[in-house]
Amino acid sequence: FPIAFCKNRHVRVRLFFDRLPRNFRNVWWVVISLLCSCYVALIAYSVFILAFDSFENKDISPTSEMLLFPWQGVAGLGLTILFIAVVMFTVKRAAIALGLRAEEGKEGDLIGLGVETEREAKKAGHHEL
């Protein structure tokens, strides 16, 4: 773990996840993203239900005596924006997994080299990474 800290890399992603085959990683990203989108949608729905109940009951905060529903609505709106972002990420990852789109960024740079990980790229003599 100290090596991951020194290289400023995430332990799960860089030490374990990158060693998996590229196709498996892409499919796994889609599965994780679908689960995340379901979870965020459920929480957003629950927060909106809470906000509507607070509105109907005119609930107020016991300490500040402010209405609760506006703040709960803002939290629900933030979660809805997060849900949209996760869905967009899922669609992007699904397109990559299906081969309809190329990967971007550092991980995508390995595609043209015909290797799966940075370690294999360096072993093959691609030191420009």
Walkthrough of the structure:
The protein is mainly α and 129 residues long. It has six helices and no strands. The protein has helices at 2-6, 11-16, 22-57, 69-97, 105-108, 118-123. Helix 3 (22-57) packs antiparallel against helix 4. The two termini are 22 Å apart. Residues 108-116 have low confidence and may be disordered.
Uncertain spans:
108-116
Task: Tell me the number of helical segments per DSSP (H or I, 4 or more residues long).
Answer: 6
Portion in strands: under 5%
Tell me the total number of β-strands: 0
Shape: elongated
Label the structural class: mainly alpha
Taken in chain order, the helices and strands follow as HHHHHH
**Main beta-sheet strand count, sense and barrel state:** none
User: Which range best describes the helical content: under 10%, 10-25%, 25-40%, 40-55%, 55-70% or over 70%?
Assistant: 55-70%
Radius of gyration: 21 Å
- How far apart are the first and last residues' alpha carbons, in Å? 22 Å
What kind of oligomer do you see?
single chain
Mean pLDDT: 80
Summed up, what is this model?
The chain has 129 residues and is mostly helical.
